Amino acid sequence: MTAEIVLQSVVSGLMFGGVIALVAVGISLIWGVMDVINFAYGEYLMWAMYLTFFLYAGAGLDPLVSVPVNALVLFAAGVLTYRLVIERVMRGPIFAQLLSTFGLFVLLRYAAWLLFRPDDRQAQSLVSNGVVKLGELRVSTGELVAFVGSVLATTALFWFLTWTKTGKALRAVAQDREAALALGIEPDRLYAIAWGISAAAAGVAGSLVSSFMYVNPLVGDVFLLPGFAAVALGGFGNVYGAFAGGLVIGVVNVTGGTLTMPKVKLALVYLVFLAVLFMRPRGLFGGRRQ
Questions:
Q1: Is residue 288 situated within a structural domain?
Q2: Are the beta carbons of 204 and 153 closer than 8 angstroms?
Q3: How far apart are CA 233 and CA 287, in angstroms?
Q4: What's the pLDDT score for residue 1?
């Protein structure tokens, strides 16, 4: 095992980690604002990949061109999810909230299985087949574009949360719902927006990875489990920590598979995850920071 191979795996891990970071930020946003775990998040991404494929197959849209379409469609799906499902269980016991998102996970997965079967499909992109050379290092253009797109989308979300009126209101609700109510902020409207933004992040991620990954009804697992590990690593509800955690998980995932065996790379991810939970239960960056 040469240093060059290790460095190549680290770079590849960062490319994958950028997408995991965007997924983790979407999961963390919901947890930070509402204390709800969305088990169906990977299925949002899976449906976004199917939407990208059918836009490519039916209308000839490049996956990169379909990014804003996916973001808008998934934003609407997220708002609809909140209004039809989550809003009805918010005042119920925590188990009702957990089971509602788990039930949504089962519904979305097996609806895709029924409609599309387990066949692999892939949208082709004009930039997916190239290779960028950085000295001896090589990065596929599809992965590089996905990384850059994920970082840009995450940066835009951070800017929204920090500088816009709605973003500041979301942060206020996350920090103290009762105080936000006293200031005239409507939590229900902001909860719907948070679900929409979270789902839109999955839509963007789905479009970005569609050019170099096959979509099938199980593809959400590739992103959901590492995404949850990244959220825990960065601190539950801390969107900035979730982004950093996603990069770390991506590097551990790919580099661990290179240094050991590909079959055990997820085990290494969860060993890191468990080690952090034992030593620092609130995550590396602490929880609940919007």
A1: no
A2: yes
A3: 10
A4: 57
CATH number at residue 92: 1.10.3470
Q: What is this structure's pTM?
A: 0.91
Count of domains observed in the chain: 1
Distance from chain centroid for Cα 147: 13
Distance CA 174, CA 33 (A): 4
3-state SS track over 221-243 = HHHHHHHHHHHHHHCCCCHHHHH
The H or E element spanning position 140 is: strand 137-140
CA distance 69 to 63: 10
285 inside domain = no
Please classify residue 269 by burial: count the beta carbons closer than 10 Å to its beta carbon, then call 0-12 exposed, 13-18 middle and 19+ buried: buried
**pLDDT tens track for 114-125:** 999 888 998 888
Q: Which amino acid is at 226?
A: P
State the residue for tokens 């709800």.
Answer: 36
d(CA 231, CA 24): 6
Q: How far is C-alpha 7 from the geometric centre of its chain's CA atoms?
A: 25
Which domain range does residue 66 map to? 3-279
